């Protein structure tokens, strides 16, 4: 199980922090993403978090 606090930092798919975090989340059987501010300025910033939980949610 992975519990990721401040998950809104996983917003840029090219950032090393996001790559490492998403790899860790995908390798876990369960995950919980915690954030007081999940989308700071644009809805697209939620994509990396949702994709880490369920890559099939957005098909393209």
UniProtKB/TrEMBL annotation:
Q: Name one GO biological process term.
A: DNA repair
Q: Quick check: keyword Hydrolase in the entry? A: yes
- Give one Pfam family, short name only: SNF2-rel_dom
Q: Which GO terms describe its molecular function?
A: ATP binding; hydrolase activity
- GO CC aspect terms: nuclear replication fork
Q: Does the keyword Hydrolase apply?
A: yes
Domain Helicase ATP-binding intervals: 1-56
| Keywords (A to Z) from UniProt | Hydrolase
Q: What is this protein called?
A: SWI/SNF-related matrix-associated actin-dependent regulator of chromatin subfamily A-like protein 1 homolog
Supply the gene name: LOC103514823
């Amino acid at each position: 199980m992975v519990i990721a606090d401040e998950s809104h930092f996983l917003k840029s798919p090219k950032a090393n922090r996001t790559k490492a975090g998403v790899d860790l989340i995908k390798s876990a059987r369960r995950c919980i993403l915690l954030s007081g501010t999940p989308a700071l300025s644009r809805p697209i910033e939620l994509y990396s978090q949702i994709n880490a939980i369920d890559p099939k949610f957005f098909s393209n």
